[in-house]
Amino acid sequence: MIEDVKIAPKARRAGGRAARVAVRSAPLDEALRPVRAGLEGGQYSPLSEASVARIHQAALQALEEIGLANAPQSGIEVMTKAGAILGDDGRLRFPRALVEDMLAKAARGITLYGRDPKYDLQLKGSRVHYGTAGAAVHVVDVDTGEYRESTLKDLHDAARLVQHLDNVHFFQRICVARDILDNYEMDLNTIYAAAAGTRKHIGTSFSDPSHVAGCFELLHDIAGGEEAWRERPFMSNSNCFVVPPMKFAEESCVSMEACIRAGMPVLLLSAGQAGATSPAPIASTIVQAVAECLAGVVYVNAIAPGHPAIFGTWPFVSDLRTGAMSGGSAEQALLTAGCAQMHRFYGLPGGAAAGIADSKLPDMQAGWEQAISNTLAGLSGLNMVYESVGMHASLLGFCFESLTLGDDILGQALRCVRGIDVTEDSVSIEVIRETCLEGPGHYLGSDQTLKLMQTEYIYPELGNRMSPKEWNESGRPRLMDGAKKRTADILASAPCQIDPALDRAIRAKYPIRFS
After folding, report:
1. What would the DSSP string read from start to end of 425-456?
2. How far apart are the first and last CA of the chain?
3. Are 67 and 93 in contact (CB under 8 A)?
4. pLDDT in tens, 425-437
5. For residue 44, what are the contacts with CB-CB under 8 A and spacing of at least 6?
6. pLDDT per residue over 8-41, tens digit each?
7. Side-chain-facing half-sphere of 338: CA atoms under 13 Å
């Protein structure tokens, strides 16, 4: 049942008029919230059915005739045993029957767990989830416009911020701890800084296969033992298992094998760049990304049939005038939506990138770049939208205030994903009849309006909808000032998400470098 909603006075503004806002008597049930994790997308399809089929056939042809080079020996052994063919040129080729067989074994409808079950992500069909990623090497200062090197504290604070942003559903490493020089310590601290900041699902990577075992010891300690970890693995491996075009990344593949054996979900990440490491045509870039990720499906399921894996066609776009990456372009938005359509074609959980700004600061350019690609990604039914908030300069920079502002952008995108509810109640003319023939001639105070204020509509936390008069009377508040305040308020009170006794034990055992 929809709970009662009343209109209550808010603090009076300088002009003396009382603002009126919707107030709930109790928290709204998750199922009734206007936007939430796991809304069904799929309304937008940039590719025709014939185009999807053509891309699929081209990807199969590429795997069968071109194949992939540079697989590690362990990968060669497992994939050739499954039916891949090792050529005299050292390339592994994949017969169509093998790919189809492994697609039949691949996991569908997987769950990515949070440390709190309310943050579990159900990757089924075209359910949409937005989150972070990007591994920026700089942090943007909105006051000075300067870029400084990112630190472990920045990573931890970003995770703390994400924990308190409703429309950001998962956290993957958003910046690199440049202040930690030892790569093993960096991998350990990245895991712990993220886990101490958020109980949502986390994505991480490993800089060397030799680090995996020690990092899993830490994960087991956080989870409460290996059995508890395997029951609810709350962290996934973001794995660049290929180096486009059409080559395996040997060390990443070895790390991926270890993660699979340890029960960690994997993101099979193919990140070519159109016009550079993948073909310039958008369609051909999708072909290459699909072929590379299909090779990953064979790899994973040859090791462990049905292991949870995300089909991470994650190609980027180049500005062909310079060769530089253009993550905020319309072509990137189309490319990501097309990849999402291929995920739906295979029925596999899929992930790709959106929300990247080429702009260096959270300005109007950043706003349109983030909004367009995030909305298209959601409407296309992309299960995991990575890099959706906070990223600038084509992933070179991360901005805290942009992450906070991005929560509003994602709320609007999710409302578009939800679409228009057409039910007997929502199209009934009885309210129209009553209002026009018997009532006041408007709907402002009707029971229907009051009930739907919170369930049909979403309101921005920071976006300003005042009239010019109200805006003047309120001191002309600026959007960035609100973003800075909300960011600071969250970080001032966000607690550690690790039990204090466990935190002390972990700090005694591992070289944890943040306070």
Report:
1. HHH-SHHHHIIIIIS-SS-TT-HHHHHHTTTT
2. 45
3. yes
4. 899 999 999 999 9
5. 337, 376, 379, 380, 381
6. 444 333 333 334 444 545 567 777 789 999 999 9
7. 27
